Amino acid sequence: MKKLNWKEIIRPAATLTIICLLITAALAVTDSVTKGPIAALATQKELTSRQQVLPQAASFEEIEGTGEVTAPCKALDSAGNVVGYVIVTSANGYGGSVKVMTGILPDGTVAGVTILEQSETVGLGANCEKESFRSQFEQAIPDEGFSVYKAGQTVPENGGIEALTSATITSNAVVKAVNSAAEVFRSLTKGGN
């Protein structure tokens, strides 16, 4: 039987430990260098999305104390008058959470919808980002909320959103998120905000 040589054990272990420490340090430096630009890019993307769903707004003011994960915003014109609300909600789709930004005018009409984050199937559920799907929401919010129908089915009288082909789960997720935004809007406007 061969005698155990501690040098043969310690030397590779020490080498691996040093390599791990160097890689950890490199990752920490990379994280600290990129954290600021990534946050700035996310803020810019959100502002651009707000302008997309409510282009008539000159500025946005977050509404505090609503209990939402992402605070809804009042959209203001250049005189400071409320021209609408921007609300971010999410719902579970086929591939995970679908994060949706909805712009709603004071009269309860959806001015625009944009998809902030989604991990749906490319060519199917990912089509929720297409204007042809999102523009269906640009109408007055029905009392009972929006609902999904499939091609060939009877179109609901109001609030009907045609499902994406082979992506009904994603379509339902976006509808659920927009309906959640409508509920937040109703609670905000009841309170006189």
Structure description:
It is a single chain. The protein has 193 residues and is an alpha+beta fold. It is 39% helix and 21% strand. It has helices at 6-53, 131-134, 168-190, and strands spanning 59-62, 73-76, 82-92, 97-104, 110-117, 147-149, 160-162. A five-stranded antiparallel sheet has the order 1-2-3-4-5. Strands 6-7 form a two-stranded parallel ribbon. Strand 3 and strand 4 form a beta hairpin. The longest helix is centred in the first third of the chain and has 48 residues, at 6-53. The radius of gyration is 24 Å and the shape is elongated.
Furnish the topology, listing elements before pairings.
Blueprint: H1 6-53, E1 59-62, E2 73-76, E3 82-92, E4 97-104, E5 110-117, H2 131-134, E6 147-149, E7 160-162, H3 168-190
Parallel strand pairs: 6-7
Antiparallel strand pairs: 1-2, 2-3, 3-4, 4-5
Briefly characterize the structure.
The protein has 193 residues and is an alpha+beta fold. The protein has three helices and seven strands, in the order αβββββαββα.
The strand count comes to 7
Provide the structure class. alpha+beta
Strand order of the largest sheet: 1-2-3-4-5
Number of helices: 3
End-to-end separation in angstroms reads 83 Å
Output the radius of gyration.
Answer: 24 Å
Shape: elongated
